[in-house]
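Intended use. Records like the one below are meant for learning the mapping from a protein sequence to its folded structure. Do not use them to infer anything beyond what is encoded.
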Amino acid sequence: MSFPKLRHPIVQAPLAGGPSTPELAAAVSEAGGLGFVAAGYLSPEALGSQIEHVRLLTREPFAVNLFCLMETPVDGARLAAYTRRIQADPAAASVTLGVPRFEDDAFETKLRLVIEQRVPIVSFTFGCPSRAVVDRVHEAGAAVWVTVTEVEEGQAAEQAGADALVAQGIEAGGHRGTFSDADGTGELSTLSLLALLSRRTGLPLVGAGGIADGAGVAAVLAAGARAAQLGTAFMLCPEAGTAAPHRDALLAGERTALTRAFTGRRARGIVNRFMRDHDAAAPAAYPQVNQLTSPLRKAARERGDSGSINLWAGQTHTLARAQPAGELVRQLAHDATGALDQAQQRLGRQP
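Structure written out for the chain above:
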């Protein structure tokens, strides 16, 4: 499958858990970029409705991202201890916590849905789809993208038949897209990962992580990417479903860090009270911890408690601006062109 012909090399990252909306995806695609529908945490019925909604808003290509989860061993004693710890958290008062359990986010049902709906691009994160899954998507005329954080992951995705790799650097906000959540994996920067993948795989690359302005877009294009994927940069757009306390936190300018406190899987977010209180005790247990804390976080969002919710954000989140998504796509493309021109001029100067 060929890489899509975009008017602007701008991809809106799938922002599962609320910020991703049909309006945001459609606005990005209409402006000449590539919008994403995030299937994660949606019911299959809700996913189908969102796909239909995007198609009512635009005829341009768009993409859908699926979680590709495999059950892994979990330290039961540590998970039980963490459950007791969260039950004692002040934010859990009057909240019935979720039951920690593994589930694959209805992978097969959602896969059948995107195939039946003939979504133009289907991407996968948290793992590599099998060759059989890739073949099924290809038979429907769609391209397969896989999020990778290591060279070995990129090579595995290439062998499985993927059409493009989303190279997610450590700077990225939200969950690490690693195939394994073991400590020490997925720690390459975006530019380092692009440099290695461009030499050790033959697939088109999309740079992701820490990109929030035109200069960042220009940097990954110069490093060999076909497009830049931005997530946090779109979270202040009016079309995004970002919760009010999350928007306020993005504007406050606090530092980010990786944590398992909210979901049991490493993810980058703005440091807050819940992260400080619980990160060291959190086990590697996704999606079990996510199931546990989900009701607590929902209640905290509803009451505007930014200290008790996951504030996913990339390292350059202070560069995000509250402007319409289509306008942002065009501005990023314009500024990237200017940044590349300036770099060329500097290269041409005589010492």
